[in-house]
Design a protein that fits this description.
CATH superfamily of the largest domain: Glycogen Phosphorylase B
Largest sheet: 7 strands, parallel
Radius of gyration: 21 Å
CATH topology of the largest domain: Rossmann fold
Number of helices: 13
Shape: globular
Oligomer: single chain
Helix content: 25-40%
CATH class of the largest domain: Alpha Beta
Number of domains: 2
Distance between the termini: 12 Å
Length: 357
């Protein structure tokens, strides 16, 4: 089986796990990504890894256009083409058409879990759906919206495109950072530094607690960093290879996302990494985070934007430290069972085989 995987996320090493695993199983997998681009509207990215083939790109209506992919796919002649971006993108339609011309099966993934209106948006989604032999959705709402737009239920699967490296993200102490922080309780956040991630809420909640024994560390890149860097310990961007060390240095991982008119939390990859590392996760009830966190069993929820509720949940976790070991184990076990690299690769392999029947 020859598989072509296309998308900007492949510039990040953690989003190549599934495809590298399938390569190990003997499949001919090629990954393609633009060389330079803005990632998720907030971070400048550059493709550096030789394992991903670079794409030459142009622009159409201000959007990045993968014109070079037509030559790459014509040369490779894959059996499966998987586009790791939204079906509303012109690249989805373009790659879907190319797939049909070369006789490949086409699939894409969607994460969009807020129903967004618009004639052009609806047209682009429906064309992509009509071209797809299978559709992957990162969360339940995204799956249901695809079906509502015309996708066949039996050809739409809720499945993230990459798993968690449970060998790297495991329960282990980071003694080097602990030498600096000593006995402080470390609350950590890792992700995009943008307003809708709700980082301000953590800062305000900790001010209400008024404890000198708690420190908040935020890691990531984004346009909102100037707003928060003097209000917490801002670690900047941490390369993914060093992220296990970050997770093992903290006590509580917080993900305080806020819903906007056009976006709500779609999954939370770093939440899953924290859970795999055996950390207490405290997340807002925005979007689809309830699909990986079960309140009181694998983590805790607070009402999004409710600083008082967030404060109370932090205090509860700290005061009941001895009761958290079971929850940490539950979180680790849940990710290892449902989101390991092997599990996600197994599920993709099974679906790809069915697509070719």
């Amino acid at each position: 089986m020859k598989i072509a995987v296309i998308g900007r996320v492949l510039a990040n090493s953690q989003f190549r796990y599934t495809w590298e695993e399938l390569k190990k199983r003997g499949y001919d997998v090629r990954m393609y990504s633009p060389v330079k681009f803005i990632y998720q509207g907030s971070e400048s990215m550059e493709l550096k890894d030789e394992g991903v083939l670079p794409l030459k790109c142009g622009k159409i209506f201000g959007k990045l256009f993968f014109y070079d992919i037509i030559f790459k796919l014509a040369e490779f002649k894959p059996d499966i083409v998987y586009f790791l971006e939204e079906p509303v993108e012109i690249n989805s339609v373009f790659i879907g058409i190319i797939s049909k011309i070369i006789g490949a099966k086409y699939c894409f993934i969607t994460w969009e879990n807020i129903w967004r209106k618009g004639v052009l948006r609806n047209i682009m989604n429906r064309i992509s759906i009509s071209l797809a032999n299978h559709i992957f959705a990162g969360n339940e709402d995204a799956k249901n919206f695809m079906i509502k737009r015309g996708a066949k239920k039996e050809k739409t699967t809720k499945l993230v495109h990459t798993g968690i490296d449970t060998q790297k993200f495991r329960i282990k102490n980071n003694n080097e950072i602990r030498k600096i922080t000593k006995d402080k309780i470390i609350i950590g956040y890792a992700g995009r530094i943008v307003e809708e991630k709700g980082i301000d809420d953590v800062i305000y909640a900790l001010k209400k607690i008024k404890s000198k024994n708690i420190a908040f560390i935020a890691a990531g890149e984004g346009p909102y960093k100037d707003k928060i860097m003097n209000k917490c310990f801002y670690a900047g961007k941490i390369e993914h290879e060093k992220m296990p060390g970050f997770m093992n240095a903290i006590n509580i991982f917080v993900y305080p996302s806020r819903t906007t008119g056009v976006w709500k939390e779609q999954w939370g990859y770093s939440i899953a990494e924290a859970m795999s590392s055996g950390k207490i996760v405290l997340v807002s009830d925005s979007g689809s985070m309830n699909e990986i966190v079960e309140d009181g069993k694998t983590g805790f929820f607070f009402k999004e934007g409710d600083i008082e509720d967030l404060k109370e949940k932090i205090e509860f976790i700290i005061k009941n430290k001895g009761k958290m070991e079971r929850l940490k184990k539950n979180a680790r076990d849940f990710i290892a069972k449902n989101y390991s690299i092997k599990k996600i690769a197994d599920m993709h392999e099974e679906i790809f085989k069915k697509m070719l029947i």
